[in-house]
Specification:
single chain; alpha+beta; Rossmann fold; Tumour Suppressor Smad4; 2 domains; 8-stranded mixed sheet; 7-stranded antiparallel sheet; 8 helices; 28% helix; 32% strand; globular
């Protein structure tokens, strides 16, 4: 077992199960760490405030345990990328796509005796990192259509409900992207196999392949967009007339009049250069037994 010398736990204070699981892990680590070797930080409403608090608390820490969802992981990735700090993910969010991509199903996995470390790739948009995807158009619009109350009430189902609100909502409220003479309703650059609570936009992706999956949905009718979504959900082979795919180490995403988001949080207005950053995070995961 990899026994850390000093641990920092950061958890999403807005989720009851995150608070409960953070307490369970605090008790677990205290069984072999002294109280002065364990720190716990609850999230605040301010992203910048949390970034500063975590930076200050990381001195001497060799393992950071994040109890939350993809937004919490995105936040800590800005700090610990290319550092020696090992990252453990205890899923307690809505989508949990990063944990799903790493095969971390049971939130108790870190209490097992056999774990291993691995260096994995993440993405970069401009000067910021992302751990799952960057998106513009549809994925940015969904943020308004999936408010916090919807996530808390319906969990993963809230992604489906938000998609339906998008597909059948007013066309005038959609952002469109203009790229190389073509209009698009959606562009996504994914490093993870999954986004949106398990949608397999990058089913053959690997954190070791060092490349992104660029996916774009051309401007089309509602029926055609439903067909494109069904095609992605089925992981269908072959070409879809309404979707463009490209695998690359870098690409450009968005346009000057369209906002982009990283891991479900809006971060700016495009266009922005997207890159795959290999071996940027050291993560812990259950050891593979033979």
């Amino acid at each position: 077992m990899l026994r850390p010398q000093r641990v920092l736990i950061y958890y999403n204070s807005l989720r009851r199960k995150a608070k409960s699981r953070a307490q369970r892990y605090s008790d677990y680590f205290l069984t072999y760490l002294g109280a002065d070797q364990l720190s716990v930080i609850a999230s605040s409403p301010s992203r910048e405030h949390d970034l500063q608090r975590i930076k200050q608390a990381l001195h001497g820490v060799d393992e950071l345990v994040v109890v939350g969802g993809d937004g919490s992981i995105n936040l800590v990735a800005q700090i610990i990328a290319f550092s020696s700090v090992r990252l453990s993910i205890i899923s307690a969010g809505t989508g949990n796509d990063f944990a799903r991509d790493l095969g971390l199903g049971d939130w108790r996995w870190r209490m097992q005796e056999t774990v291993q470390s691995e260096c994995i790739a993440i993405g970069k948009a401009g000067h910021e990192y992302f751990v799952n995807h960057a998106g513009s158009g549809l994925s940015s619009d969904l943020i308004d259509l999936q408010p916090r109350w919807l996530k808390h009430s319906f969990g993963r189902l809230s992604y489906t409900l938000a998609l339906l609100r998008y597909l059948f909502g007013p066309l005038t409220r959609r952002q469109s992207i203009y790229r190389q003479g073509q209009w698009y309703d959606c562009q996504i650059a994914a490093i993870s196999r999954y986004i949106g609570g398990g949608i397999p936009v990058n089913p053959i992706g690997s954190r070791q392949h060092h490349e992104l999956q660029w996916l774009a949905v051309r401007r089309s009718s509602r029926w055609q967009q439903l067909q494109a979504l069904w095609w992605v959900l089925r992981r269908a082979r072959g070409d879809c007339a309404y979707i463009e795919y490209e695998r690359a180490s870098h690409c450009e995403l968005g346009s000057a009049d369209a906002r982009y988001e990283l891991d479900g949080d809006r971060r700016g207005v495009g266009p922005v250069i997207i890159e795959c950053i290999p071996q940027a995070l050291t993560v812990l995961r259950p050891a593979v037994t033979t």
